[in-house]
Amino acid sequence: MKKDEESDGMWCVVMFDLPVETKNERRAATQFRDLLLDEGFMMVQFSVYARYTPTLRGNRTSMEFIKQNIPAKGKVRILNLSDHQWAKSFHCYDSQADNPEDGPTAPDTLTLF
User: Fold this and answer.
1) In degrees to the nearest 10, what's the CA dihedral of 31, 34, 40, 41?
2) For the chain, is the Cβ count within 10 Å smaller at the N or the C terminus?
3) How would you label 97-113 residue by residue, b for 16+ Cβ within 10 Å and e otherwise?
4) In this structure, are strands 48-53 and 10-17 parallel, antiparallel, or unpaired?
5) What region does 47 belong to: left with phi over 0, alpha with psi -120 to 50, or beta?
6) Each residue's pLDDT expressed in tens, for the chain with a length of 113 residues
7) Which CATH code is given to the segment(s) 3-102?
8) What residue segments make up the domains of the chain, in order of their start?
9) For the whole model, what pTM was predicted?
């Protein structure tokens, strides 16, 4: 990977299917979702969470953390997308396409909780 690509903004997208048939499985699924939120991820859709990081290095750290916390029998896929790829993604709501010019962009660097 080129040096300039390493410094471009990146999105870490986590998609998952977790078992929720038993009380313990539901608890583990809730804990996993809460863990993602605590780590700064936002829910994009049900079972799809994303987080912006200024560099790919931040995503690598997130991937290791997530791998260590996957619930039993859980299926998880992690994608790393450049900010440019994320902004070019097609998205719609209620059968209406959002304007790609108004697409998601990198969040402000200062976020207060």
Assistant:
1) 90
2) C
3) eeeeeeebeeeeeeeee
4) antiparallel
5) left
6) 454 445 578 999 999 999 999 999 999 999 999 999 999 999 999 999 999 988 888 788 888 999 999 999 999 999 999 988 988 888 888 877 776 555 455 555 555 44
7) 3.30.70.240
8) 3-102
9) 0.77
